[in-house]
Amino acid sequence: MKFLVTGGTGFIGARVVVNLWERKIPVVVADLSLNIEWTKQIALLKYQDDAAKLAEMQEQIDQTSFINLDVSNRERVNDVFLTFPGITHVIHLAYLMSAEVEADHNRGASVNILGMINMFDMVVNHKLSRLVFASSETIYGANHSAYGDENYAVKEEDFCSLDDHFFTYGVMKMLNEFTAQKYIKTKGVSIAAMRPPIVYGDGRMRGSVLWACEFATNPALGKKAKLPFSKDSRDCWIYVDDVAEQFVRLSLKPKLNHFAYNNGGHSVTAEELMQTVESIVPDAQYEFDERVPRTALVDRCDSTRLEEEIGFIPRSLEDGVRMQIEEARNRQLQVNY
Question: Against a cut of 0.85, is the pTM above it?
Answer without folding.
Answer: yes
